[in-house]
Amino acid sequence: MSIYDTKGRIFNIQRFSIHDGRGIRTIVFFKGCYMRCAWCCNPESQEYAIQTMIENGKEKIVGKDVTVGEIMPELLADENYYRRSGGGITLSGGEILAQPEFARDLLRACKQNSLQTAVESTGNAPFEAIKEILPYLDLYLMDIKHMDSAKHKEYTRAGNELILSNAKKIAESGVELIIRTPVVPTFNDTAEEIRAIAKFASTLPNVKEHHLLPYHRLGQDKYAGLGRNYAMKDIEPPTKEKMEYLLSVAEESGLKCQIGG
Asked: pTM score, two decimals?
């Protein structure tokens, strides 16, 4: 079977993005995730099942099955913008590693068409799945959310042991790895917590950057649209001053640090 026949389930393709990698990018959002982060801004990504969500008072079907070949024309439509800006394709989610064959073959097709590739992933999957995508990958954007496994599990329903182990293996592979941390009040917004993550990131070979991503509530309405409760509704986003302070803390690690990414 051709890689262009490999099937996967997605819920969005976002063109002309300037996030989740360098330059102008097209982001493919995978359906399904192993974790349940309390602050997730894409709750429609968590379930692999195709869902109905109420959006602006109307029903919207979330999720569709596609082949690599079916979506490649849309990804190639903006290749001139990618080349001029240093951009490309980013696979996000959900968790792309929950659909490892589709992720691998989509990345492989992108490389066959000379597109730069990136993934946004927690790395919370067997390393065998990660190893399959590395040959076709230019950039791995990896969340390290907390160094304490118990607190990590309390807020995400998953411990962090596998994630930290995979971070080391990805860094050792030679693929460019950028560590990202969503800064979430009540979860990890103290100097001690950010310092611990930055210190860990600085021990990873070839890792040069650590991005702090401020928590926001832009996905809150989606929870209501799915008939779900948003557990973080009383949590205020961190202030600019708080983010700048935590940035200075992260910079103690010697890595290149920034807010957003």
From this structure: 0.96
